[in-house]
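User: Hi! I have a protein structure encoded as tokens and I'd like to know what sequence might fold into it. I'm fairly new to this, so please keep things simple.
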């Protein structure tokens, strides 16, 4: 039997096997939750294997369609301009998926056949794809997030990072894997942070389109700093309608809820009025809290320079500045990176941008201990106050529920020790940020949260996990993780 016959037989057998699996929705309705979730997991594994085959085939099509073959290449002989177009049309996939398959297919082919691959740092991706352990979208996220070698980052270092990310891909979806890859790149290339920040800022744009029906469309691509400001304004205008925390007083929130406009119409009208008021230099407060503010998290030692004298961490809150520890009990920090973060944004910003932003706003000091726990104000008040909320945002970086991406601005402060039931205090130590959805889930569905030192653990109800195995709830704040990694 020839290789062609062998492959064709194997593909036909796989298709026949899949065809025999029920696709009737009624067959799945009687399944228990655990059985349904197990099938969902198996579907993911099926997709990974299909991705591996699609990438290998696309890579071979691309090899047989290289531009130097001209009209003799496979794609052009088949009536298509490029290999990507051939793959897209023949597999009925999107242009993006076809392009990704071809791009990764070249990586896989080079990893196997080339003595000197053009992108050797991507060899771990090719190996993981062909092993059926790395989905196509995840592989492309790693490739895009890591970038290419530079004067300060060698190919070997990127290859090691790629191998690490392939191992982590089992528990991270493609979007989170992309952010993780960018995080590793920043760790490898501290000197390039300012350049990458400048590239993101250079990509900002605002375009106005007019449609034939008379409607207009504004297309605004934000850099992270602009995104933080616009998001703050958008949240204040619409969050009462979307179930999030209320950034305005109760009367104004009630007015927003009662408004007959859709959320999108309301946002459009609010931003239009902001533009009108801004054009007239009117200081009217449309959204209840004055001008928008952003928070910057930064090691104070990095901000003040090597002569700062003593370990420190900073939040700049619209700005806030936080120092780490007290003079008597401050932990030692070594190798603190010279960059900061805009709260709610994944990418670091250069220390020059941090200094500019802090210079333009007020600062609030937050002290944290060696374990990364900010201030503690006890049990005097039922609700966490503004300073505590800033401290929680700096420590938690958003909703601490595993897998949740809600930023601090969308979170509520939950008492780890319940105020009424456990007589818990309103402290940062025993507070934790949860988005409204997960806050309600914890209170209404029997989920528990425990704290041990600076670590928090999620305890599922017995209906979800009979053994109630604890699930770690690490901080979402990359700034805090980096800071504590340097604490000794």
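Assistant: Happy to help. Inverse folding works backwards from shape to sequence: for each of the 488 positions I chose a residue that suits the local structure. Here it is:
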């Amino acid at each position: 039997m020839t290789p062609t016959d062998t492959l064709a037989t194997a593909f036909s057998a796989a298709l026949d096997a899949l065809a025999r699996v029920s696709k009737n929705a009624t067959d799945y309705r009687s399944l228990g939750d655990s059985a349904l979730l197990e099938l969902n997991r198996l579907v993911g594994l099926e997709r990974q294997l299909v991705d591996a085959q699609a990438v290998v085939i696309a890579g071979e099509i691309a090899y047989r369609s290289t531009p130097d073959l001209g009209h003799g290449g496979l794609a052009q002989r088949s009536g298509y301009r490029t290999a990507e177009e051939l793959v897209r049309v023949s597999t009925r996939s999107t242009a993006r998926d076809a392009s990704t398959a071809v791009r990764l297919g070249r990586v896989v082919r080079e990893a196997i056949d080339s003595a000197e691959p053009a992108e050797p740092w991507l060899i771990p991706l090719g190996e993981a794809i062909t092993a059926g352990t790395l989905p196509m979208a995840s592989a492309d996220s790693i490739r895009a997030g890591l970038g290419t070698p530079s004067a300060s980052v060698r190919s070997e270092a990127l290859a090691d990072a790629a191998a690490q990310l392939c191992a982590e891909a089992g528990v991270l979806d493609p979007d989170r894997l992309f952010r993780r890859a960018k995080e590793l790149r920043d760790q490898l290339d501290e000197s390039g942070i300012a350049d990458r920040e400048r590239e993101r800022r250079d990509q900002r744009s605002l375009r106005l389109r007019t449609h034939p029906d008379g409607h207009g469309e504004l297309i605004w691509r934000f850099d992270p700093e602009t995104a933080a400001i616009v998001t703050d304004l958008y949240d204040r205008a619409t969050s009462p309608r979307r179930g999030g925390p209320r950034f305005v007083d109760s009367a104004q929130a009630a007015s927003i809820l009662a408004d007959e406009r859709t959320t999108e119409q309301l946002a459009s009208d609010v931003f239009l009025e902001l533009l009108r008021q801004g054009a007239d230099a009117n200081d009217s407060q449309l959204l209840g809290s004055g001008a928008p503010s952003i928070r910057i998290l930064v090691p104070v030692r990095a901000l003040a320079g090597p002569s700062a004298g003593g370990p420190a961490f900073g939040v700049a809150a619209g700005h806030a500045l936080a120092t780490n520890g007290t003079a008597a009990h401050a932990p030692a920090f070594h190798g603190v990176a010279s960059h900061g973060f805009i709260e709610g944004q994944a990418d670091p910003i250069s220390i020059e941008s941090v200094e500019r932003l802090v210079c333009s706003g007020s600062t609030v000091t937050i002290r944290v201990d060696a374990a990364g726990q900010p201030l503690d104000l006890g049990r005097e008040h039922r609700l966490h106050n503004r300073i505590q909320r800033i401290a929680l945002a700096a420590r938690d970086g958003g909703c601490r529920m595993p897998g949740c991406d809600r930023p601090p601005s969308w979170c509520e402060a939950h008492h780890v020790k319940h105020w009424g039931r456990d007589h818990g205090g309103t402290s940062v130590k025993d507070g934790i940020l949860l988005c409204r959805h997960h806050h309600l889930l914890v209170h209404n569905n029997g989920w528990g949260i425990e704290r041990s030192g600076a670590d928090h653990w999620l305890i599922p109800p017995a209906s979800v996990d009979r053994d109630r195995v604890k699930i770690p709830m690490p901080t979402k704040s990359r700034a805090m993780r980096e800071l504590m990694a340097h604490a000794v």
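A useful reference point when you look it over: The chain has four domains: 29-188, 205-279, 295-368, 392-485. Feel free to ask if any position seems puzzling.
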